## 1
Amino acid sequence: MSRIEQIAEFLKASPNDSFLKHALALEHIKLGNDEIARIVFEEVLTTDPGYVGSYYHLGKLYERIGENEKAIEWYEKGMQIAKEKGEQHALGELRGALEELTF
């Protein structure tokens, strides 16, 4: 059974688990399924905007496919949430990604 199949099985039992959805999106990235990964990351952030780790990976995905404006939007949204939650490490990673892209 592939990792994607394993995660899909876990999601049947816990369909709203942001960690599992995030892991599923990362597995799709590994396989080059960027569009599926994008959909899953955006679903995570729509249903659980406080799941800070997905902002970075979604931003990087948008960078990779050449949609820098979308990447900037997601980095900025993630930075705001990270500030609100006091997650300094995530804030630093998001800020670093944004600065790398824009400077």
## 2
Amino acid sequence: MFKNLTYRLKLIYLGVGFIVFLFLSFKLAINKTFDLKKQCNNYEMQLSQLKNAPQQMAVIKSKLNEIDQRVGVKNIDQINFEELIIEHVSNYCKNNNLVLKDYPGIHKFSQQDYITETCKITVEGSFIKLLRLAYGIENNFSYGKVSSINFYTEKNFRTKNTELLLEIYVQNIKILNNE
């Protein structure tokens, strides 16, 4: 069959056969080698990440502790949170001649697995002392975090004086125990 073909056709058939041979060898051998090389690189990358796992776990735990500290997640019940915040504020007010004007109690809001407790406290006094109170609660009160403060003035009609008031909102976030 090939004896009757011209050299030109034989060369064309040889070229086509060579291309088919290259394609088949790529599909059967070389392509699998590239896939194995990619898989090996992925495994090496995962292995290098696993070598750093203890340091990454320590970093993640420290970040989680920092978030817990900022948010104020503690395992205390409502009565203790109320008592602690009132005790902290009343001691400061007594030592610095401030007046605790209003404390309506704790407002609870639950969503999914969390309970957010918000405590609103209104205190009357001078600006510097009120600012120090807000700063003290924010930095020294570890059972909750200050979510908002509001300074405003109010006219006292009995004494006919203008009073400076501070509203402090302290929040504590708890995880519900559904066990």
## 3
Amino acid sequence: MAIDVCWDPETDQPPARVAAWRSMNAVTRGDKEEWLALFAPDGVVEDPVGPSGFDPEGKGHHGRDGISAFWDKAIAQVERFEFTIRDSHAAGDEVANVGTITTFLPGNYRVDTDGVFVYRVNEAGLIQSMRAFWEVERAMATARQVAEG
């Protein structure tokens, strides 16, 4: 497990940045219930934004049930995640993180997804929306089989 971030979520950080860090941390540990608890009851996940294999209509995954189904379809299928956040821009109740998510898939495949990951929180610090801007074709172009080790 690796999270390469440039902030400490226990210091005085904007709530959206803290929520983003907690989200990435829960994903790397495979803790679905902890991850779901970070979202507002009416929260939405768009990952990626627009139509995709995870969301053919491009309308996002709404509410805890929809977000839970997204976990089962997209996150649970990955053996391991690594997040490398190169930059983070917090403003108001949102944060935009620029970085790479590396996914390790069954069969020793690895995919690097470069993108901008935007989190917006509500007054309670719960994630109201998570929008991931990345291109499926660009990510799939990085797919490669790696040696076991």
## 4
Amino acid sequence: MSSYKIELKDGILRIGFGEPAQNDQIVRDAAARLEEMTTSGELVGGQLLKINGPISIPVAFVLAHKLAHIYGAVAFYDPKLAKYVVSITHNPAYKLGDLID
């Protein structure tokens, strides 16, 4: 079992912690899962990727680095706003800080 779970479901990257571990292992597991998903064709890139779930700061950096290369924009769910916040963008259709349902 992995210390970090990543699944693409209904166009949203669902993330969360798995088996208890420290961030060094969680970062390695998250990177390995992203690589597996890219190699299998599960993550093919696109205009926008929404991410939803709990994350540590080191894992957020891993996801940002890997996903910013294949998606035009990346938005993360903010439960206080009940919306996704665009956090990375190379796509002129999305601006940093845009809120998306």
